[in-house]
Amino acid sequence: MANSQSDQIQVWLELLCQMVPGIGQAVLVQNWSTEADPIVRWPSASTTHSDVMTAVNLSASQNKVITSTLSKSQERDTAVDTIIALPLIRSDGLKRTLAVLVNIKPSQQSTVIQMLRWGGKWLKLVPETSQTIVNAPTPLSLKNIPAQLLERWSGIDGKSLSRIVEKVRANWIVLSVVFIAVLLTFMTGNYRVTATANIEGKIQRAIVAPFDGFVVSEHARAGKTVLAGEVIAELDTEELQQEMHRYTAQINEYNNEYRKALSVRDQTQAQIFKSRVSQAEAQLNMLNKKIQRSSLVSTLDGVIISGDLSRSLGAPVKTGDVLFEVAPLDEYRLIILVDEKQVIDVNQGLRGALTLKALPGEPLPFVVHKVSPVFADNEKGISYRVEAKLVDGHPGLRPGMEGVAKISIEQRRLGWIYFHKLFDVMRLWVWRWLP
Questions:
Q1: CA 234/CA 227 separation, integer angstroms
Q2: How confident is the model at residue 234 (pLDDT cuts 50, 70, 90)?
Q3: Helix spans in 192-329 (H)
Q4: 139: which DSSP letter?
Q5: Helix (H, G, I), strand (E, B), or coil: what is residue 358?
Q6: How far apart (Å, rounded) are the C-alpha atoms in residues 97 and 52?
Q7: CB atoms inside a 10 Å sphere around CB 402
């Protein structure tokens, strides 16, 4: 057991010498052991300088710090070989004496002495005898030194220290809960209604089929920017051309019959054929207008937001079928779908901010223009349509873009903001189950 004890002291002395720079030799005289070598040296195989041992004897006999130098330097504050010896006395009266030969400046002596005394605190963890080792805490190790030091310096055993730590921890938890409760009760924040939103053109013009026919060509599709009057698609006019030829022939025939009736002065027949000519000419004018309208043109400058006939060439269309929709690029409106639980808080004139999926880092301010009674039943429940106007435009905006809108309502308590939805659910649940 003594050998193990000496080994631990040897490790301690080696660590101390490595911690304090400039130490060339170190010796620890322990006059309390008769079984082990009373002198522990570093380096372990070296011979201690005689002046060092003299300083040890003086320090032990006078019970104070002894310092001396082996040589005197002519220059002020120059590093010289210095011997420092100091007694290390435990609370139980056990005495050791530590001496080092270190190359330092005179101004550094007090710092080195403080470091040696601090190291002596760690030496107290080494037990005195084998009997002490059995009852002592865990042997000296870097892992257990902090806990042992705290226990020995404070005079509190490990169990009591653990109880104190647990009480402090519990108090901190209580204080944290109280602080958060006070914060939620008295602090206010900006209450905002959050809802999904999408961009629509302020004006949307539908381009429909003017008559029953077939798609013969397409010049643009959804996503393309078009100008007013630009041809987007064309319908087949072959049947209309044939109808025009038939009505033209009828007009010529009726005109001939009309002239014959006039030549024989048959006024009745003349009026009949004159009416037929007028009817045929009306049909012919209608066919001319249909042919003119067979070219589907945009009525405004904008972008095609829906419609793609590239895969429907030759397909039949009926009168009134919506083939394309065009919206302007510089005028938009924002459609916000607000949940039924929060729509009561939204009023005209409120302000908010929109973040689009396409522009996540650029919030766009808006003003609520209208709260519509129109609602939509979707997967999340019933949502009401709220129309808003963007305050500033953005060159990257396009109809159909989606994002998240936040409408600023007013300042309210933080606790209400974070927990009012939960309270509403609980109130509704209680109301449902009350008799």
A1: 16
A2: confident
A3: 238-263, 267-293
A4: P
A5: coil
A6: 11
A7: 12
Query: What does the alpha-carbon distance between residue 6 and residue 10 come to, in Å, rounded to a whole number?
Result: 6
How many residues does this entry show for the chain? 435
Three-state SS for 9? helix
Q: Is the dihedral of CA 239, 245, 249, 250 positive or negative?
A: positive
DSSP 58-97: HHHHHTS-EEEESS--SSTT--EEEEEEEEEE-TTS-EEE
Q: How many angstroms separate the CA atoms of 117 and 156, rounded?
A: 23
Q: Is the pLDDT score of 148 beyond 60?
A: no
pTM: 0.48
What is the C-alpha separation between 171 and 26, in angstroms, rounded?
48
Q: First-to-last CA distance in the chain?
A: 81
C-beta separation of 50 from 29 below 8 A: no
Query: Distance between CA atoms of 433 and 112, rounded to whole angstroms?
Result: 78
What's the rounded Cα separation, in Å, for the pair 127 and 136? Answer: 7
- Residue 383 CA, chain-centre distance (Å), reads 27
What separation in angstroms does the CA of 93 have from each of 28, 113, 163, 367?
17, 21, 31, 83
Residues with Cβ within 8 Å of residue 391, at least 6 apart in sequence: 364, 365, 366, 367
Q: How far apart are CA 343 and CA 381, in angstroms?
A: 13
Q: Within 13 Å, how many C-alpha atoms sit on residue 58's CB side?
A: 14
Least reliable range by pLDDT among 10-14, 20-24, 82-86, 165-169: 165-169
The CB-side HSE value for 296 (13 A sphere, CA atoms) comes to 33
Q: What crossing angle do the helices spanning 109-123 and 2-19 adopt, rounded to 10°?
A: 150
Model pLDDT, residue 29 = 86
Residue 354: strand pairing partners: 364, 405
Per-residue burial over 321-343, b if 16 or more Cβ lie within 10 Å, else e, is eebbbbbbbeebbbbbbbbeebb
Rounded to whole angstroms, the Cα distance separating 19 from 102 reads 12
Q: What are 207's two structure tokens?
A: 């381009």
Label residue 93 by pLDDT band (50, 70, 90): low
Pairing of strands 332-339, 351-356: unpaired
Report the C-alpha gap between 252 and 284 in whole angstroms.
12
The H or E element that residue 332 is part of is strand 332-339
Strands 402-413 and 381-390: unpaired
Range in 6-15, 58-67, 151-160, 353-362 the model is least confident about? 151-160
Single out the residue of 395, 278, 378 nearest to residue 330, CA to CA: 395
Taking the CA atoms of the chain, what radius of gyration do you get in angstroms? 50
